[in-house]
Structures are given as structure tokens and as C-alpha cells.
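PROTEIN DESIGN WORKSHEET
SECTION A - STRUCTURE
LENGTH: 252
C-ALPHA CELLS:
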């Protein structure tokens, strides 16, 4: 699959939305858009194959199930992993397992963009301080609304555009060269990495108060063979009832 200039720009814009931190263009915000499942689906929409994009994004999402960003630190970037990983995998016609093994190091590289983002944004605060000293409220509003967003747009869209447009062919050649046993090794690694994400999320929910819900979901999915949407709806209902009873008990 070849990626056009317009498609590469749109993919870069998807990554920008995933890390902007302010839902000024959407009602979702970076918390939702940064998930590889969402990014992958949007990339698939841009590339004309939503199903494949969703499948690859879902596979990449698994290692990041327990991802959190505490205190502004970002140990990895699921938004870049989902966006760029899906785009490169679709361009190279790679399997979801190979896409996962490609996306994890890409997610680590995304921390460079985040550090640059946070470091340079400090200078904008000093610009606002100087404008405040001048009692120039209009200048303060212009700086805080537009300057950080323009900077973030440049450091997110441009790198993703360059890698997506010029690097997709290189990645396809590499995948083709690894055909056979080396590619099978990547698929095995990509199959193991999601287990790590599942294990991390299980570690966080395995308490005496919540473990029962996990086993309930397991029984519904494996033994009763309910589809995942039905299990999700039942989980939502169970969570609502549980929280209502929990807070009523606390209030009493």
C-alpha cells in the first residue's frame, strides 16, 4: 500500500490530536485519542481500510492496557505507537503481531517528542509573565491559545509525515527481506507483548473487591460464549450497580 502526501499529513494530524492535551478541536481529548485502538481506526479510515486499521490498532493497544501518565511523565507514547505503527504496518501489509513488535519501540521514541513539548512550553509561560507585567490580556490569550498549539503541531505532524511518507517503502522492503523465520520471530514477540499488557492490568485489578468481576467476565466470554459487546454492556451495568452500592455504604 502506498501512502500519499495528503494521507501522510492527515496521519500526522491524528497524532497531533492524540497528544494535544486540550480538546479544542474534538470533544474527546487526548485521553481517548491517544489509545492505539482509536488511533489505528482513524489511520485505517484515512488509508481506506477501517477494518484492518482497527485490528492492528487493537493489537497494538494490548501492551498499553495498563498505561498511565502520572505527574506529567510519559514512559512511552501509545499515541505515536498506534498512529505510526498502524500506518507503517498497513503500508507494509504486515500482520497485527508484527505491527505490535514494530510499535513498541516507536512508542518509546515518542517520549522524545513529549520531552521537547514540555521543555519548550516552559518558555511560553515566561512570555505570558511578561505580557502580564504589561497588563496586556489580549496578548496573554493569544499566547496561551495558539503558540503552544502551533509548536506542538510542528513537532508532531512533521516527523510523522516524514516517516509515514518516506519511510513506508523502507519498512515494506525490510518486512519483505525478513520473510521466513526472522519474520516468524517478530510475530512470536508480537504475540507475547500483549500478554504483558494483560498481566499488568490484571495486577492492578486483582483485589478482593474487584477480582470477582474479572472471573465473571471470563465465565461469560469463555463458557457462555457471549460476544465481547454483550460482556462489555454487562460489565458497565455491574460497575454502575457496584459503585452505587459502594458509595451508599460509605455515606451510611
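SECTION B - SEQUENCE
RESIDUE ASSIGNMENT:
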Amino acid at each position: 500500500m502506498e501512502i500519499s502526501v495528503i494521507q501522510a499529513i492527515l496521519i500526522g494530524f491524528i497524532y497531533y490530536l492524540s497528544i494535544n492535551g486540550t480538546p479544542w478541536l474534538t470533544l474527546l481529548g487526548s485521553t481517548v485519542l491517544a489509545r492505539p485502538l482509536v488511533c489505528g481506526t482513524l489511520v485505517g479510515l484515512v488509508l481506506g481500510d477501517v477494518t484492518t486499521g482497527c485490528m492492528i490498532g487493537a493489537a497494538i493497544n494490548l501492551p498499553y492496557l495498563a498505561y498511565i501518565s502520572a505527574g506529567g511523565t510519559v514512559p512511552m507514547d501509545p499515541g505515536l505507537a498506534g498512529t505510526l505503527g498502524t500506518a507503517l504496518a498497513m503500508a507494509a501489509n504486515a500482520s497485527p503481531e508484527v505491527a505490535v513488535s514494530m510499535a513498541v519501540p516507536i512508542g518509546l521514541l515518542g517520549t522524545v517528542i513529549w520531552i521537547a513539548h514540555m521543555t519548550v512550553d516552559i518558555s511560553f509561560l515566561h512570555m505570558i509573565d511578561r505580557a502580564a507585567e504589561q497588563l496586556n490580556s489580549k496578548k496573554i490569550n493569544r499566547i496561551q491559545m495558539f503558540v503552544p498549539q502551533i509548536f506542538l503541531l510542528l513537532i508532531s505532524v512533521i516527523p510523522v509525515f516524514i516517516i509515514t511518507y518516506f519511510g513506508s517503502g523502507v519498512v515494506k522492503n525490510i518486512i519483505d527481506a525478513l520473510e521466513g523465520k526472522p519474520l516468524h520471530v517478530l510475530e512470536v514477540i508480537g504475540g507475547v507483548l500483549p500478554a504483558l499488557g494483560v498481566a499488568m492490568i490484571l495486577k492492578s485489578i486483582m483485589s478482593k473487591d474487584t477480582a470477582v468481576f474479572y472471573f465473571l467476565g471470563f465465565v461469560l466470554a469463555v463458557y457462555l460464549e457471549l460476544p465481547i459487546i454483550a460482556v462489555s454492556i454487562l460489565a458497565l451495568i455491574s460497575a454502575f450497580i457496584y459503585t452505587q452500592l459502594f458509595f451508599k455504604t460509605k455515606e451510611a
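SECTION C - NOTES
The two ends are 61 Å apart (CA to CA).
The mean pLDDT is 80.
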